[in-house]
Amino acid sequence: MAAEKVICNTAHLFPKKMEKAIVNLLANAEFNGIVVRWSTAHALGQILKLKSRHNHGLLPAIENICEREKDNAIRKIYLDAIKKAKIVCIIFHQ
């Protein structure tokens, strides 16, 4: 959980170095433990909100995770990040 919190708090400082963190977080999103998945959702959501080049692949991955997620609190974290990313995408492309 501590690693995800660090990512949440520092992702905006290192947007070009997120690839390894994203790969590891996507793996953690499938973990059985709710605390790990909750922390992972926060970290992935923060990365998605950075509007970086990673969003092209990250957004569909998060949407797939969200569809499979059974915990409503975790799903809500993902949905919030997806919503904010899509709003930015719509505004950017107009």
Walk me through the structure:
74% of the residues lie in helices and 0% in strands. It is built from five helices and no strands. It has a single domain, classed as Leucine-rich Repeat Variant, CATH 1.25.10. Helix 4 (55-68) packs antiparallel against helix 5 (72-93). The chain has helices at 2-10, 19-28, 34-48, 55-68, 72-93. The chain is an all-alpha fold and 94 residues long. The longest helix is centred in the C-terminal third of the chain and has 22 residues, at 72-93.
In short:
It is built from 5 helices and no strands. The protein has 94 residues and is an all-alpha fold.
List the helices and strands and how they pair.
Layout: H1 2-10, H2 19-28, H3 34-48, H4 55-68, H5 72-93
Helix pairs in contact: 1-3, 2-3, 3-5, 4-5
Give, in order, the helices and strands.
HHHHH
Q: Report the sheet with the most strands, covering strand number, pairing sense and barrel closure.
A: none
What would CATH call the architecture? Alpha Horseshoe
Question: What's the tally of helices?
Answer: 5
The Cα radius of gyration reads 12 Å
Distance between the termini: 38 Å
CATH topology: Leucine-rich Repeat Variant
**Class of secondary structure makeup:** mainly alpha
Shape: globular
CATH class: Mainly Alpha
